[in-house]
Specification:
There is one protein chain. By secondary structure, the chain is mainly alpha-helical. The chain has one domain. α1 packs antiparallel against α2. The longest helix is centred in the first third of the chain and has 30 residues. The protein is elongated, with a radius of gyration of 15 Å. The model has no long low-confidence stretch (mean pLDDT 71).
C-alpha cells in the first residue's frame, strides 16, 4: 500500500521530464525552422505549449488523486 504514492510521484516526475524534453526539442526544431517558414515555427510553438500544459495538468491530476 505504501508504494502507491511513490508510483504516482514517479509518474508525475516522468511526465514533467517528458514535457521539458518535448518543449526543448520543439523549441530547437522551431528555431531551426525560423529560416524555413514562420508558419512551421508557430505550429511547433503551439504544439509544444499544448503538450507542456497537457503534461502539467496530468501530473497535477495524479498528485491530486
Amino acid at each position: 500500500f505504501s508504494f502507491v504514492p511513490l508510483r504516482r510521484s514517479e509518474i508525475s516526475v516522468l511526465s514533467g521530464f517528458g514535457a521539458s524534453a518535448a518543449l526543448l526539442f520543439f523549441w530547437i526544431f522551431g528555431f531551426v525552422g525560423v529560416r524555413l517558414n514562420h508558419v512551421i515555427v508557430f505550429f511547433f510553438f503551439v504544439d509544444s505549449v499544448f503538450s507542456y500544459s497537457l503534461c502539467i495538468s496530468s501530473s497535477l491530476w495524479f498528485s491530486l488523486i
